[in-house]
């Protein structure tokens, strides 16, 4: 029994303990394993400051560097040290990455400019860069503007879509200039914690292409590393996924309940000011020529760049969308064995969705997989859609992709370049890979691209074959919401002048880096010419969408085919100058 004379002491002790716990909760909540939704990570400020160009120096033995480039299609990690903005992270895994971009560059004798993936914990368990587990740097393949992917994410972020963090970075290798890349937060553990908190759901990246990496399908191109550990701040070094394919298990009642994922609020303010590359510490070193033996860092001479331009080889032209485009995407048959990547429900057998489940980013069980199949089944029936699909997020995602005419995606027979997120049985879509946005994937006419129909936003397939958007557009309420997302985006991002302002700001930020890019696919003159076309795309695309929303321009593939005289005529602009896989009409330097 506590006597009265001791009550005061115990009260003070209790108050002290409560105060300490409150301080930990408020200021050091990660100590308790509590990570809030939309957690602001330190790496976001350290590496993804969009007002500057960061610097990344890759330090490794020159022979090992060249061997990695010579065997890029193997996509095997090698050890390096990475200096980010002057701070060294030791023993980091690095490998080439990509699908078409990797294959084309690896087979081109004139360039070694591949994209890379850094895994900070590949050799040192638990190592991160201020909380970032994996980093991607993209090589600007097929992008004369250097901005297509950046602007795509910028639009989606503006619309309130969960996107990876992104910013420009100047890469050097052992101190020698290499090139201007786009740095991206990989959609893995760090991304999940930042956006959903420690109690995040499951993430999948279905990939139907087998074009790079020597057929290593489980880790293809942008494919995440094999499933990693359990939830929490540290990333355990575990591999493999639980469970065998079979009939889906019935989820428990608790897991079957609807869990609405938070709808992020987009940044709607003025564009931030972006300084020019004159800022101290961000200037990319001026190329001074690379001497030494062939085993040293391999970069083309300025003469080679002027002659060849390091451009990817030409690809076949693919026209769209005023005809039946089936079997036209990249010469591949429509919806070849998709393994569920088209998100079409077929049956309850987990093996029917092997492309989805083999792409799991995190460790999954049959029960986890069963929740995905259940959601797809409900989607196919059009039942309880708001329980099984995060309708607001999915509609925004597809509105953005429609505006961008992004067809190297789920919207075509490629049926890839997206992440599927599942939490408590509810599905949503997350963006990835936009270097061929702005209608530069299939090489159609400029008029066809500018008038890409908002109510049938697919190419080479039907809406029935893309149910996660097709089924939603069958519901008038959801179609209206989708139209509202389109209208809001074109009004506030394009018609307001913000889009062109963004381009001017980015040009001021990266122009000098582009001019001095040691391994560039395009010349500085081509870059400058592309920006005029990029601005024209925004003006004309917004004009067409406005007309489609108001009914003055047909909004489906069929009606556009029959009423072509009502379309915005845009063949006076040459969209190939934006950069594409075709590169048919790029002017000579």
TrEMBL record:
Instruction: Give yes or no: UniProt keyword Kinase.
Output: yes
State the UniProt keywords alphabetically.
Kinase, Membrane, Transferase, Transmembrane, Transmembrane helix
Name the Pfam families for this protein. CotH (PF08757)
Transmembrane residue ranges? 7-27
One example of the protein's molecular function in GO is:
kinase activity
Q: Where do the segments described as Disordered lie?
A: 211-337
Feature: compositional bias, Polar residues: 273-286
Quote the biased-composition stretches of kind Basic and acidic residues, using this chain's numbering.
316-337
- Known InterPro entries for this protein? Spore_coat_CotH_CotH2/3/7 (IPR014867)
Name of the protein: CotH kinase family protein
Source organism: Zhenhengia yiwuensis
Source organism phylogeny: Bacteria, Bacillati, Bacillota, Clostridia, Lachnospirales
């Amino acid at each position: 029994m506590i006597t009265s004379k001791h009550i005061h002491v115990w009260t003070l002790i209790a108050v002290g303990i409560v105060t300490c716990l409150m301080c930990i909760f408020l200021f050091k909540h990660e100590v308790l394993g509590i990570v809030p939704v939309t957690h602001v990570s330190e790496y976001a400020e350290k590496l993804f400051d969009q007002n500057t160009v960061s610097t990344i120096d890759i330090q490794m033995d020159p022979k090992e560097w060249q061997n990695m480039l010579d065997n890029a299609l193997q996509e095997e990690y090698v050890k390096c040290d990475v200096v980010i903005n002057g701070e060294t992270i030791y023993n980091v895994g690095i490998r080439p990455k990509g699908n078409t971009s990797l294959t084309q560059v690896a087979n081109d004798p004139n360039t070694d400019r591949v994209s890379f993936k850094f895994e900070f914990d590949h050799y040192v368990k638990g190592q991160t860069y201020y909380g970032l587990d994996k980093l991607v740097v993209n090589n600007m393949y097929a992008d004369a503007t250097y901005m297509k992917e950046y602007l795509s994410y910028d639009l989606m972020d503006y619309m309130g879509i969960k996107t990876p963090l992104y910013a420009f970075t100047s890469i050097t290798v052992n101190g020698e200039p290499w090139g201007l890349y786009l740095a991206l937060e990989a959609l893995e553990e760090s991304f999940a914690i930042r956006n959903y908190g420690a109690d995040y759901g499951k993430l999948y990246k279905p990939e139907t292409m087998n074009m790079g990496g020597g057929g290593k399908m489980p880790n293809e191109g942008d494919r995440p590393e094999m499933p990693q550990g359990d939830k929490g701040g540290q990333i355990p070094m575990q591999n493999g996924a639980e469970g065998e394919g079979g009939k889906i298990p019935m989820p428990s009642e608790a897991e079957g309940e609807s869990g609405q994922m938070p709808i992020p609020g987009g940044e709607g303010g003025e564009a931030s000011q972006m300084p020019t590359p004159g800022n101290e510490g961000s200037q990319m070193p001026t190329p001074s020529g690379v001497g030494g033996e062939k085993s040293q860092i391999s970069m083309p001479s300025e003469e080679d760049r002027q002659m060849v331009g390091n451009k990817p080889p030409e690809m076949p032209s693919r026209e769209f969308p005023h005809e039946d485009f089936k079997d036209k995407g990249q010469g591949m048959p429509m919806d070849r064995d998709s393994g569920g990547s088209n998100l079409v429900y077929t049956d309850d057998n987990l093996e029917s969705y092997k492309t989805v489940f083999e792409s799991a980013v995190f460790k999954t069980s049959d029960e986890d997989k069963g929740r995905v199949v259940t959601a797809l089944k409900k989607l196919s029936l059009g039942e309880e859609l708001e329980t099984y699909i995060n309708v607001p997020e999915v509609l925004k995602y597809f509105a953005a992709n429609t505006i961008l005419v992004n067809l190297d995606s789920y919207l075509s027979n490629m049926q890839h370049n997206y992440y599927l997120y599942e939490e408590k049985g509810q599905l949503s879509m997350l963006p990835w890979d936009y270097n061929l946005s702005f209608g530069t994937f299939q090489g159609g006419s400029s008029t066809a691209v500018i008038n890409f129909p908002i109510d049938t936003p697919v190419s080479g397939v039907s809406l029935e074959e893309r149910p996660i958007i097709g089924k939603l557009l069958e519901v008038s309420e959801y179609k209206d919401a989708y139209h509202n997302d389109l209208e809001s985006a074109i009004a506030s991002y394009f018609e307001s002048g913000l889009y062109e302002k963004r381009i001017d700001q980015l040009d001021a930020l990266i122009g000098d880096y582009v001019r001095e890019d040691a391994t560039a696919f395009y010349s500085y003159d081509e870059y400058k010419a592309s920006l005029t076309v990029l601005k024209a795309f925004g003006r004309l695309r917004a004009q067409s969408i406005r007309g489609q929303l108001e009914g003055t321009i047909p909004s489906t593939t069929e009606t556009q085919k029959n009423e072509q005289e009502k379309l915005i005529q845009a063949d006076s602009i040459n969209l190939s100058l934006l950069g594409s896989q075709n590169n048919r009409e790029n002017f000579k330097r």
